[in-house]
Amino acid sequence: MIPVNENYPIRWLLDSGASGHFTNNLDDFIEYDVGDFGSMGTAEAGKTLYITAYGSVMIEHEVTDEDTGNTLKKRTTIPNVKYVKGLMGRILSPILFSEGNNWTMVGRAAYTMMYKHDLPVLTAQRIPTQEDRLHYVLTRVVKIAETSYKTARLITYDIWHQRFGHISETALSKVPKATEPKVEIPSKTGTVCPGCALGKQTQKPFYPNPKRAKKLAELTHSDLLELPITSYHKFKWVITFLDDYSSNCSIFLLKQKSEATQTIKDFVTGTELMNNTKCLQFRTDNGGEYMPEELARFFRERGIIHETTAPYAHQQNGRAERLNRTLLEKAQAMRLHACLPDSYWEFAIRTAVHVYNRTPMRRLNWKTPTELHEGIKPKIDHLRVFGCVAYVFIPEEKRQNKLTPRSEYMTFVGYIESGYIFLRQRNNRALFVSPTAIFDEGIFPLCPNGGIGRIAIPREPETSTDDLTSNSDNNAPEPSEQGSVPSFDLDPSLYDPNEPDVPPRPTNPTPPRSEPPRSRSPSNKEASDDDDHLSYEDFDPSQKKEVHFRPTPPPNTPSDLSEDEVQPPTNEKGKMPERRRLEREIILPETFPPRRSTRTRQPPLRPDNIYGERSNPTDIERQKQQLHRLASEGGKDFINLLLANAITPVTYKDLDNIPQDDQKAWIEACIDELRALKKRGVYEIVDLPEGRKTVKNRWVFNIKSDGRKRARLVAKGFSQIEGIDFNELFSPVVRYETARLIFGVAALEDWEIESVDVKAAYLYGKLEEEIYMEQPEGFRKDNDNRVWRLHRALYGLKQSGLAWWRELTADPQTKQLIIALVYVDDVAIIGKKTALFINLKRKIMNKWECRDLGETKEFLGINIQRDRKNRRIFLNQENYLEKILEKFDVTSKPTKTPLKSGFTFVPFNGSASPAFRQKYQQLVGSLMYLMIGTRPDIAYATVKLSQQCANPAQEYYDQGLYVLRYLLGSRHYRLKFHGASNEALVAYSDSDWAQDPTNRKSVTGNYVTIAKGCVSWLSRKQKTVASSSTEAEYMALSDCSKQLVWMSQLLKEIGFDLPSPYLNADNEGSIFWASNPVQERRSKHIDI
């Protein structure tokens, strides 16, 4: 028997019956993904263990060569190892080795050998145990994270200050004694920390409360904090819990205030189980989230005393209020120092809790909350500066090829058990978890000033750098009772045992609170006196049996996750949630409700569908596939974090079923909309004439990207009656090819191009018809049967676009030429910078409320770039293209052509599901928008793909992705207009004879240029079957000549008398037919 080597203490059981590799320790991994990956049974009856992570493990071990007897030291990376909490030991599966690595196993009495290509790669020894047949692989797990720390550069005072969430100098000096391993803290440099200056400045003194708890869980403080905007994962609220004895802090992030009750119950239960003790007292303010009967009953059943403050006396819950301020200050200082956007506050506040619990505090005799809570000194060798750059190691199995870099450039945004959370610079800024990285803690990737995390502090012009550096913490005077001198030393550890337990008294001017006032009484102070029907107090919501919500998609949420992208857990310690917790948060049904019909027909689009009221069968099918895909790939925590978005009411009656604070905010948004309508004279309140019917309306709610709630009153145009409520409907807008043609002329003439955006343009349109509309829901007084007589157009009316067009073109024409390209409310003014140009723009902005966008940078979704020196204009849709590439996860393997060589579109004989058909149509629609705007090179491919939309096959979808890969490689292509060329209209025409294998129809292709830039292009199937290539070319020439005639006439109308355009073709027969007015026998049947 081979003796056990003490240098390799970790044993992996080689089990021929195991279905996979398993470990019970997350420290074994060099990289892993978190999620719900199934379960496994155990020998113990009724006990099931759950797989909550999987990844790669690197082991160091010895291999014995049977032929020579030599022992070799090896490092082996084992992929697809599953983490099972509660497993008795580590297990390796020789079957998995054989299948995945082509290894062979040879069993001996004393050991087992694994071979690959006749070379030994693994040795398992028999260990003397009760089960004497068991063989183990003796290893030492390689901890790459330790290696990266040992190779780190010299750490300065500022680095440690930033790692601990911008704590004070006094508290930082106590770190070496209170934590492990012992570190050396350099002296302070004396400069002002910009993160502290921006995120922690205060004027508020505190007052003491000497009463303290004597043991864990004896007294818990809690408070709820609302943030002004939603976070990365759509969180809006933070609920904090502070143990009075140890000062250990826990937080939970909530999407809705109503989640607080269940979160409190979970926290109390978890605290009692983890600490083997009982919660005795729970101190909060008397906010509504702490007062429901369900929570009161829970406290009574567990014998917990719930202490509440007097109304509006937040001082009585001072420790919780002070904790909120401390965490916010830390989070703000770290986030601002790293130049991260506001929505990343959730990562900053989680990190703030992580370092807060590891910070020595004066009131704890310079011990840390973690030490008092867990009984051991916390380790700090893993701490890094929040928001700094990290080069994250990518395991070989996750790299695309051997030339792919071994690490990826990411931003560090938080901690997780045995690892870190990183923000990827690609993949729509998705998150990545790994224990392996090399940090550069002086570089901040998201900072604009070269990545150096030093934020400029606004100051007067005469202020010098010396003035700033001399005003250090050491020289600053003590704050007065009124707090007239700001302090940057704001860490909780600074305060002595008599530190205040109440928030500061307000001073003038009162700084804004980090938490909104808890007033529950409605107010209508903002409503004007003459808006008697807009009063919030008049609002009398009716009950509704069925409630419809629609999810508001986040601005930067990725639609698909790659296998190495995971989301952080929802607790501050980074521990993976238990499966029971996941099942409580979101439960996936086994089957979705059956549809009324088993047919796969597309459901009709009724008016309610237009406004998003109900899901049709196609939506249900798509949601079903998405939910099950995410559940299988990432677990239910993915769904909870990524798909549970902010809830927006769909109908006005849905406001009855949301928290009161949100309800009031939505009603105020409705009032703002009604004020705007009244200010513009959109309506007057009258009695309904006899014999007339009213048009219905509805409220449409939306949350803007900055978190603002927006309500818009929309008429239900489908309830209008033709001949009574409307007559003409047509409303012209500029065509894309017209816009490109004018841009080409602007390049030739070196004209100015400036834009304005008309706000709520439709509301300016005057109605010629007599239209009556019901009063808005929720703002109609009882027994008031009057209606609105509409004088101006409202969004949703059929003639609104026409009314706005008439308003826009009502002014008399001038003899001078100024061109205005109008697409609803987007206006681009083009011409020489004369007094007429300036006056026209000023007149538009004076007549209607507009935003002056200055020189046009974007129009109709097309980016516009100018080289004025060389008279060149460039058009592209690169921003939109990047979004489409990320949406469909096309990030690699670019191609050189839009279509595969020899690919033929043959009608699909099968039947595509509604979900797949919609997915395919989304892809084609995205390509169509690009093709119409600036990409003539994909016109043929897009048209061919669009012809399969009714019943697409998988190969057509793959071909659509192939087009995207072509666009990936050519994403920087632009249309260029060269003004110095002085080139007028030039056209090119061609055809592909009998291209369609099913009906032998040919395909027409043409494009037209001006100033050497493409302004018009076409690719389409011809109407008539051509019996020869000459006929096909002749029909293509006819199409192209029509386009040339139209463009020539348009240019003449705006004052350009150009020479006859050139039309180029490559078929002599078709050129002869087109040049001679002779109709031959072979051309009489042509339908053109």
TrEMBL record:
InterPro entries: DNA/RNA_pol_sf (IPR043502), Integrase_cat-core (IPR001584), PolX-like_BBD (IPR054722), Retrotran_Ty1/copia-like (IPR039537), RNaseH-like_sf (IPR012337), RNaseH_sf (IPR036397), RVT_2 (IPR013103), SH3_retrovirus (IPR057670). GO terms for molecular function: aspartic-type endopeptidase activity; ATP binding; DNA-directed DNA polymerase activity; endonuclease activity; metal ion binding; RNA binding; RNA-directed DNA polymerase activity. Residues 533-549, 572-587 have a biased composition (Basic and acidic residues). Keywords: Aspartyl protease, ATP-binding, DNA integration, DNA recombination, DNA-directed DNA polymerase, Endonuclease, Hydrolase, Magnesium, Metal-binding, Multifunctional enzyme, Nuclease, Nucleotide-binding, Nucleotidyltransferase, Protease, RNA-binding, RNA-directed DNA polymerase, Transferase, Transposition, Viral release from host cell, Virion maturation. Transmembrane segments: none annotated. Residues 500-514 have a biased composition (Pro residues). Residues 455-618 are annotated as: Disordered. One of its GO terms (biological process) is DNA integration. Residues 466-485 have a biased composition (Polar residues). Residues 206-377 form the Integrase catalytic domain. The keyword Protease applies. GO terms for cellular component: nucleus. It catalyses: DNA(n) + a 2'-deoxyribonucleoside 5'-triphosphate = DNA(n+1) + diphosphate. PANTHER family: TRANSPOSASE, PUTATIVE-RELATED, TRANSPOSON TY4-P GAG-POL POLYPROTEIN. The aspartyl protease (PR) mediates the proteolytic cleavages of the Gag and Gag-Pol polyproteins after assembly of the VLP. This is Integrase catalytic domain-containing protein. It comes from Agaricus bisporus var. burnettii.
